[in-house]
Amino acid sequence: MLHQFFGGVRPVEHKDLTEHRAAVPLPEAPAQVVIPMSMHIGSPCTPTVAEGDEVKVGQLIGRPNGLGAPIHASVSGKVSAVEPRPYGGGGRMLSVVIDNDFQDAPCPERRRQNGVGDLTGAEILSVIKDAGITGMGGAGFPSHEKLSGAVGKVDALIINGAECEPYITSDHRLMLEWGEAVIGGARLLAKAVGAKGAVIAVETNKPDAIENLRSKIGSDGEIRIQPLRARYPQGAEKQLIQALTGRQVPSGKLPVDVNCLVCNVATTAAVWEAVTEGKALTRRRVTVTGEALAQPMNVIAPIGTPVSWLIKLAGGFQQEPGRVLLGGPMMGISLYDLDVPIMKSTNCVLCLAPDEVAKHDPAQACIRCGKCVEVCPIKLTPLFMRMNADKRRWSEVEALHVMDCIECGCCSYICPARLPLVQIFRAAKAAIRERAAKARETSLQAEVVEEKVGEEETQ
Amino acid sequence: MKEYADLKLTVASSPHVGSPVGTRALMMDVLVALTPALCMAVFFFGPRALALTAVSVVGCEIFEALYRILLKKPVSGGDLSAAVTGVLLAFVCPVTIPYWTILIGDFFAIVVVKQLFGGLGKNFLNPALAGRAFLALCYLPEMTVWVRPGTKFWLGLTASAADAVSAATPMADLHNGLLPWLGTSGVRLHDMFYGNVGGCMGEVSALALLFGGGYLILRGVIHPRIPTTYLGTVALLAFLFPRVGSAEDWMLAQLLSGGLMLGAFFMATDYVTSPCTPWGEVLFGVGCGLLTVFLRSFGGSAEGVSYAILLMNACVPLLEKYTQPKRYGASRGWQRKARKEGEHHGKG
């Protein structure tokens, strides 16, 4: 390996709970799915169906407004409600609720593309857009937007199979079970953005996945597998770019500004599925795991399946969970309602046992050990940021570049005083944004006043 | 899912897991790392060394608890940081020091230096070293009795300085421009390495302190930046400017004598009073080394480690201010590289 990203930590992986469990289609389909109209970065979609409508698998049910991606029905059945429902993003979101008829009848309008090899880059992009593909590794940025902005500018196309978060094995299973889709998808992506090839980055804690992908890459040298020594947050976009190319994405810039593009392996496989089988993104691999569960497992679940349904299929709780999360333990979102649905970006449902949960304590004293500085992958100084944030000195916190914080959680993880650093920085960011918005408002008002004064003077 | 309705689910900010190593565990590791040096102190100076250390630890913990109870502050109980101060202060005192004197030092270290500035994490001077400086100022005779090491000269628990068979220290020889094995102490190099010399009870054995320091580095409690730059600077200067004898002899004698090993691994690396930035740590180590050599060569007293570290403690905010790490995407090296690559691409 040529480069290394800054900092990082090595939390206990706990991947052994599920890494040898093949991802299976749900043994029992949910009676109802709830599909939120926002599973991506951008504005929510407008529902195209109404209560009482019959829908088929893959049928369009949400049309994007501006930045966004279309949303499709993940089961066939009858729309029983279009209303706000609790969702994993926090709060409620307008959702299409579908009563499953268990037929899985496919939508006849969706069909496979003939002659995959003959598709042009633009055609691939339009298929991706049409299939409603968004980043499936976490953030959920609409893929066609990201890709079309990168056409002709990418010399390093990186397929992200790092999966550095503890517990999660859905990408691992995908690379093991459906390597050809990952590799085929990588070729399609390379063609779509006009890159010469692609690198699939996989951490060495998944040797079987690396071996499987290597056996399938062929000999044209277009696709390369790059094993990486496991360290968190290797799978974060900026860190992966640094680890593979040595380049750093300047603050406020995008990977494409340093000629890089990062796509998650699940996204890549979804592209392959969309192009070769004409399928919209309506299912995904999800790891259902944690010490609190009786039978941790990997499943291929329709988008919109309630978390509670997955927990039930995984044998229910064997002990009361300390926390239930969407995503991994380092960056996942904790749930207060188990009926929220899984989304396009949900790679894991994690039920942590109470003794696995970190006990953060804002009252303890910082001992200035500097471990937070040591592990920060952005090379910030969390202890000084916290010191100023505690005193609400927002300008100082901003000057320490809190806005560059990627909230990976390394500092909170390592802090021997158990200070909730990331939480403090989130609050600081919100306060700084609010202050900036207020400043804009007042300056706008001042401008308006000035203009008026000016008008009056000319009169 | 009715069965889940009664569940109490906690909502909290990520990350949801944490490293098992807390403040207490770190302090415990420091205490473990100090154990070999304590064993050597007991071996060379007798059970009084152990009794003094115990008195100092208990004194520090009691002063800390009393202060916090009297001022109605939450009792920090169990973080063991006061215990570490207690051991370290005992280690930088001679074995003959009266019990009441070391308790005064404990009081100064814990109450004046640490708690009056806000308690754990807020003091700007190393409490143990400040305590020693205070004692050296007020109780100079008690602080400069050097007992001959060895079971023959062991002191009883209630012995005083009057009962001791005193010895010249290698430090004094060096200060007078003599190599210890040619000077009044007559101590050979390997004795200095094992600790078979007169001196402060926890400082004598370089071997034990190297063990302890190595343990701290391997456990990830301290980063090797400060000890290596500190020892490296002293070694280099001693090697370049030997006062007598060969450069190697002078360098080894400087490295193995006085409080340097204890200072480099346990005092200068104190979290609270050393910089938190990597380059700050490097400069801090180099500064400690420079000042140590300077004070040893030109100072009034033979030893300079404790004052060197205290002076550098006071420089920490300044060092941190000017050594803020260059964040991701903003480091100059990378930007230069990016420009070069850009030019390269432009040409291509």
What does this structure look like?
The complex is a heterodimer of chains A (459) and B (348). Chain A has 459 residues and is an alpha/beta fold. Chain A has 13 helices and 17 strands. In chain A, helix 4 (179-193) crosses helix 7. Chain A is globular and about 65 Å long. The termini of chain A are far apart. In chain A, 56% of the residues are buried. Chain B has 348 residues and is mainly α. Chain B has one domain (23-319). Helices cover 59% and strands 0% of the residues of chain B. Chain B contains 15 helices and no strands. In chain B, helix 1 packs antiparallel against helix 9 (206-218) and helix 4 (99-114) crosses helix 5 (127-138). Chain B is globular and about 75 Å long. Chain B starts with 22 loop residues before the first helix and ends with a helix. The model of chain B has no long low-confidence stretch (mean pLDDT 91). Classes of the chains: A alpha/beta (459), B mainly alpha (348).
